[in-house]
Amino acid sequence: MRKTKALITGITGMVGSHLADFLLSETDWDIYGMCRWRSPLDNVSHLLQLANSGSRLNFLTADLNDYISLMNVVEKVKPDFVYHLAAQSYVSYSFQDEFSTLNTNINGTHYVLSAIKDFSPKSKFYFAASSEMFGKVRSSPQNEETPFYPRSAYGISKVTGFELTRNYREAYKLYAASGILFNHESPRRGFEFVTRKISHGVARIKFGLQSNIKLGNIDAKRDWGHAKDYVKAMWLMLQQKKPSDYVIGTGKMHSVKEFAKLAFNHIGLDYRKYIVIKKNLLRPSEVETLQADYTKAKKELKWEPDVSFEKLVKDMVESDINFVSKSGY
Questions:
Q1: Which domains does the chain have, with CATH numbers?
Q2: What backbone torsions phi and psi does residue 84 show, to the nearest 5 degrees?
Q3: pTM for the whole thing?
Q4: Which pLDDT tens digit goes with each residue over 71-111?
């Protein structure tokens, strides 16, 4: 009997690794993880061990900027489910290099969709859209009907990917759905992101390895949830009879300042003594507030977040304290 197969692009990233964990624990599917040969493997060292032991997990090499390599993967695997997570996802970097952000994110999504259309049209496709598409919000909270107003090359690339996904759904009748995910974090988040910059900085300050944390706009507010909760929502989207798009978030906003305050409170310090505001870390065009209205997901997917903001911050700080104590970094 043929086994169900899922392909995850960007499996070495935070979300990709959590999704792989979820699928391996909750399904009996064979999982294929696509990554570049030079991708960082910190998040998936445990998955590599599974792959090397002959488990249901397989790693494949391909590049978002190379259609032939993507086509070969899709044609070879013919997956039942495709979770397209790979992207240049660091918003601040997209201001420094707009060209690579737009090329990688837009072309990569287009290449995957085109390969599915031509070589595996029965695959169910998930696109990782983003709350950054809303940008300069015109109403709050934001739901599936809220107009997009992106404020970065990253946001623009995600709007284009969203429209490509919708177009392939309508024009070619593919099962193609987008998850408009609000900020989601975990201890596996990259060091360049503000949440991990704070949690890692707090741990290093605790051990006397640095004296402060340099930040930009600490008044910016986001709807922060845990990546473990959000990958379940992604899985549920592709279990529906008909494809659709869903906003995924917690419905609650917290500022960067609140995140820092909780993180420092966890080690008994006053954040105000350790945060240094640097003008060069401010974005050319800021997104001040983002807040999810996930009513549709709650109603149709029966999904709700489980991990609180406070628990998320605590988990990240404790994880980094453990990391720094062992690595010294």
A1: 5-184+223-248 (3.40.50.720), 190-222+253-288+307-327 (3.90.25.10)
A2: -95, 95
A3: 0.93
A4: 999 999 999 999 999 988 655 544 567 888 999 999 999 99
